[in-house]
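Figure 6 in text form: structure in, sequence out.
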């Protein structure tokens, strides 16, 4: 036994409050224990020996007096976390009841104190296996501690106590629940460690164990009644004498134990206990990365502080000297918080991905298709992420360790974890499904309203009451506008169609092939005519007719308004149903370069032509051109009937339409157009082009207007659908909060154990918060998959019905990437909110009270 005082108590008293009185437990105790001592504190139950031990450990603050361990006053200006840090580095503990982290195996429980010191898992496991080999229990490494006998559990607890190579081993009634043989084995282990220089302090009420003590301290009713020191020199001399006589007793003393393999307990894997808590110097790559991230964060923080400063300038003018200090403190706090939080989330996401990939690659059949190579890449990426983002502070538990501990705790309660994650999955899945339904329906409706090309087009017409005309000058003027790629002229007239001795009035459009192609509608049968000419000779035959011929009967169809069938947008066709003045009507012959025409399905239905037989069919038609399309407002034109051949059929069943080459109508003397179709190079330029056209006095319309209205409606619909989903998510979040709260109550003793072993309050809080985040993020990711699958199943069912009725595939569920990102962020927020309450409660739990919790 050395002369160095390792524990010193001076006039220590401890009283507990009960009702309105104080009950003294320790009464003016003064005590010194030296380095290498084996001190047994002996006394009956209720004598205060456990309270004395807790006071020595920093778990129970004395009412008065001073407690020094290793020359450190552990209660003077020290909070619980600092005392916890001290225990972690210098003290190993063995309890009467074997306190375990139930979700961990034997080897993981043993190595837990090393993980708290920041030792990596592989190194800690190697050290733990060496200790198990020393006591011939390596085969129990991966078992649960509760599967072992009481004696075996106490041996494991002792290995946990000495794995960090502590200066002091404290044992609180370690043999109280053991049989005689197990108790003797445990005491021999303690004696062996004491012989290697460890200071051992043990509390017991069993007089049989005094033989192992170098110093016996007897207390009664909170007072030290006596202290007995063994004469080690005399005992050693007696042992040598006994050895010379060859007695059996001396042989046992020489061997140390009949049941224990006494080996050298290697220390090369033990971290330096007195190492600084400051961050070690990282390598160049990590320093560069951290520097860049810190600069970005600092700029952000500076901007925020400047804004806060400006908004609070009147108030801060009165305390400017405090402002500088507060900004410095705030910047450091916020910067550290953002860096730590970002690093933690990155590691959390990668750990989830890592575990998922590892589970997939564990399927045997994948080993034959390159799984080993993928495993290698996974490990390298995992090591890189850990290297950059894991917390590397001497004596501090790493983020990867905290995340792995949270996985172990969740895995220990599989059913509860699956139910909780399932609740989050359903809540998030409902949001994803309902919102994706809004996106999908929006996309479906827009695709029916407008094709891709129509989004870049606008129709130009004359405003009501305007005296402007649309002619060649207008066409070239609009074509010179920046970002305009094409301008297609359109002439709309009334056609008198003659087929099988029946007459019908229909809308006729003079258009170019380019315009038909710009509709992004393919003919259901046949092809477009091929004619893009805009000019030709004027007609060569005219004949005056009576003014009465200028009037006509009611038209069957005078409108070119098509919706939902991909045909032309609205085009005004001069109607002959309204009485007009009696301008002179000129009868002309159509100077046509081509007799080809394209019609829609409604036109075939009107004439009674079967769609399958329509291509190549002919019909006759004459055209009536009103004065608004001519230079002479007192003149109208009617053409002689001419034969047209159907070369293509477009979809459209609402109104019958006929499309003829633009030049056919232009050649009869038409100088003004009904409207123009303007095409821009980019859809986002359309609004600017339309604004410029309208500044010329023309009116514009576009499918983009309809799309904008649809977007507005569906934006509102998505918000409503998302609110329904949020209700499900709130219910799931409350369920997760309840799960975490119950888990905290069930693991209160574990919390106390972790704190007693040296885990600080913020680290325990981080552990519980991590569990919440893991469940929430996993639930969020599974919810995205769940919502996507439900949407696709519904789309398939509707598509089956649609295809059976002659339609096509219907996709009513669309999930944009932005929505996935928002859902993951939402999952993180839900995990943080639901986990912060039980995690914060762990900070307020006293280690000693938690160990006493039942």
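Output sequence:
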């Amino acid at each position: 036994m050395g002369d160095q005082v390792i524990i010193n108590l001076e006039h220590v008293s401890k009283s507990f409050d009960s009702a309105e009185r104080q009950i003294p437990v320790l009464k003016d105790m003064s005590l010194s224990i030296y380095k290498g001592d084996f001190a047994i504190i002996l006394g009956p139950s209720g004598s205060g020996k456990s309270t004395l031990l807790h006071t020595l450990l920093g778990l129970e603050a004395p009412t008065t007096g001073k407690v020094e361990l290793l020359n450190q006053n552990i209660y003077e200006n020290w909070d619980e976390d600092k005392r916890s840090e001290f225990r972690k580095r210098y003290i190993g503990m063995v309890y009467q009841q074997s306190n375990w982290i139930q979700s961990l195996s034997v080897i993981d429980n043993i190595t837990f104190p090393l993980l708290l010191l920041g030792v990596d898992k592989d190194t800690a496991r190697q050290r733990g296996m060496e200790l198990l080999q020393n006591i011939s229990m390596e085969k129990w490494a991966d078992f649960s501690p509760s599967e072992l006998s009481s004696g075996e559990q106490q041996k494991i607890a002792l290995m946990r106590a000495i794995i960090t190579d502590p200066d002091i081993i404290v044992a609180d009634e370690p043999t109280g629940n053991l049989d005689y043989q197990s108790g003797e084995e445990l005491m021999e282990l303690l004696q062996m460690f004491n012989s290697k220089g460890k200071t051992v302090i043990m509390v017991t009420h069993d007089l049989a164990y005094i033989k192992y003590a170098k110093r016996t301290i007897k207390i009664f009713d909170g007072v030290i009644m006596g202290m007995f020191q063994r004469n080690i020199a005399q005992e050693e001399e007696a042992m040598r004498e006994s050895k010379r006589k060859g007695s059996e007793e001396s042989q046992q003393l020489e061997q140390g134990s009949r049941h224990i393999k006494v080996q050298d307990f290697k220390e090369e894997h033990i971290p330096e206990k007195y190492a600084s808590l400051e961050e070690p110097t990282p390598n160049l790559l990590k320093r560069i990365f951290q520097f860049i991230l810190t600069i970005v964060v600092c700029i952000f923080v500076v901007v925020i502080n400047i804004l806060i400063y400006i908004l609070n300038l009147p108030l801060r003018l009165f305390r400017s000297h405090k402002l500088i200090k507060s900004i410095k403190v705030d910047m450091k706090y916020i910067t550290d918080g953002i860096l730590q939080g970002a690093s933690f989330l990155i590691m959390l996401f990668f750990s989830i991905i890592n575990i998922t990939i590892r589970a997939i690659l564990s399927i045997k059949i994948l080993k034959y298709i390159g799984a080993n190579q993928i495993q290698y890449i996974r490990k390298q990426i995992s090591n890189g992420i850990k290297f950059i983002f894991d917390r590397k502070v001497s004596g501090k538990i790493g983020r990867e360790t905290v995340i792995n501990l949270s996985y172990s705790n969740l895995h220990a309660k599989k059913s509860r974890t699956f139910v909780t994650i399932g609740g989050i999955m359903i809540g998030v899945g409902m949001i994803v499904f309902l919102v994706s339904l809004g996106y999908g329906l929006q996309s479906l409706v827009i695709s029916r309203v407008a094709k891709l090309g129509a989004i870049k087009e606008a129709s130009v017409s004359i405003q009501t009451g305007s005296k402007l005309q649309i002619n060649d000058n207008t066409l070239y003027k609009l074509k010179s506008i920046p970002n305009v790629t094409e301008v297609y002229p359109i002439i709309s007239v009334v056609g008198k169609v003659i087929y099988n001795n029946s007459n019908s009035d229909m809308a006729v459009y003079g258009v170019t092939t380019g315009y038909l192609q710009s509709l992004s509608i393919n003919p259901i049968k046949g092809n477009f005519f091929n004619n893009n000419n805009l000019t030709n000779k004027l007609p060569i035959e005219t004949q005056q007719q009576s003014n009465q011929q200028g009037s006509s009967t009611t038209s069957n169809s005078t409108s070119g308004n098509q919706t939902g069938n991909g045909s032309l947008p609205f085009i005004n066709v001069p109607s002959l149903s309204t009485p007009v003045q009696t301008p002179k009507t000129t009868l002309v012959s159509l100077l046509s370069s081509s007799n080809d025409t394209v019609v829609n399905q409604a036109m075939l239905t009107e004439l009674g032509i079967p769609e399958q037989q329509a291509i190549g069919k002919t019909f006759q038609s004459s055209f009536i051109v009103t004065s608004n399309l001519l230079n002479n407002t007192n003149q109208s034109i009617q053409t002689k009937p001419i034969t047209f051949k159907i070369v293509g059929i477009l979809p459209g069943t609402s109104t019958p339409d006929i499309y003829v080459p633009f030049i056919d109508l232009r050649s009869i003397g038409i100088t003004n157009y009904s409207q123009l179709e303007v095409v821009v190079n980019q859809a986002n330029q359309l609004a600017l082009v339309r604004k410029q056209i309208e500044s010329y006095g023309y009116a514009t319309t576009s499918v983009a207007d309809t799309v904008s209205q649809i977007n507005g409606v569906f934006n509102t619909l998505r918000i409503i659908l998302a609110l329904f989903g949020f209700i499900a998510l709130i219910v799931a979040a409350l369920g997760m909060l309840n799960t975490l709260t119950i888990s905290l109550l069930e693991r209160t003793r574990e919390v106390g154990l972790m704190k007693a072993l040296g885990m600080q309050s913020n680290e325990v809080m981080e552990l519980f918060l991590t569990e919440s985040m893991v469940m929430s993020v996993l639930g969020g990711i599974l919810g995205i998959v769940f919502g996507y699958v439900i949407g696709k199943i519904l789309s398939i069912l509707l598509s089956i019905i649609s295809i059976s009725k002659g339609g096509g595939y219907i996709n009513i569920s669309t999930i944009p990437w932005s929505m996935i990102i928002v859902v993951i962020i939402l999952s993180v927020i839900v995990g943080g909110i639901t986990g912060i309450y039980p995690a914060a409660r762990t900070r307020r739990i006293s280690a000693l009270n938690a160990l006493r919790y039942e």
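Caption detail: Residues 703-746 form the longest helix (44 residues).
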